Amino acid sequence: MKNKHIDIQQAAEYFRDGMTIMVGGFMGVGTPPRLVEALLNSGVKDLTIIANDTAFVDTGIGPLVVNGRVKKVIASHIGTNPETGRRMIAGEMEVELVPQGTLIEQIRCGGAGLGGFLTPTGVGTVVEEGKQKITVADTEYLLELPLRADLALIQAHIADHQGNLVYQMTARNFNPLIALAADVVIAEPDSLVAVGDISPDQVMTPGALIDHIVCPKEC
């Protein structure tokens, strides 16, 4: 079996300027803290970050924004991080706001290999600008295209040595779907158990989707 264990320094070797990264989390809950810290400390810049939100200035992916490492954010809201709004208004960072359901479906399509999907959400608003509209049975829809990333950084509650993951309640959020939609997926679990200790019925993300596991301290 492939050894998927890496330390945080080895994880940092996957970071590079200008890459697109998906990060799990909802206002920082479910965001892998050690991986985000390593990303910040690596010094890489001009990142495109795809996430539900930009959390707060000092939590989640907020420090990446505050320290000017992000060129573009694709997210469903930014209101909890005033620095994101300030940088957007000042023209220092591009922000693409996407309705939350649309955003997660774009990611799901990217992971499933689909060419996009039709949604009525955003028709007649600024959301439709630059997008193709298609009429089906007298109803107008927007064609929303799939999203993929070079790298996905996800947090799990428990992992086994093959990368089968279990999440803790709402910390699950975007993590399972971004694990499908990136070329390389790195998971940061809170704890690590032996293969077989997680019941197959409890696995929320199968190990086949996980390239690397950043070992917790006891690893």
TrEMBL record:
Keyword set includes Zinc-finger: no
Keyword Isomerase listed: no
Pfam families: CoA_trans
InterPro entries according to UniProt: 3-oxoacid_CoA-transf_A, CoA_trans_fam_I, CoA_transf_BS, NagB/RpiA_transferase-like
Gene3D superfamilies listed in its UniProt record: Glutaconate Coenzyme A-transferase
Keywords assigned: Transferase
Highest taxon listed in the record's lineage: Bacteria
PANTHER family named in the record: ACETATE COA-TRANSFERASE SUBUNIT ALPHA (PTHR13707:SF60), KETOACID-COENZYME A TRANSFERASE (PTHR13707)
Family designation: Belongs to the 3-oxoacid CoA-transferase subunit A family.
UniProt name for this protein: Acetate CoA-transferase subunit alpha
Organism this protein belongs to: Pragia fontium
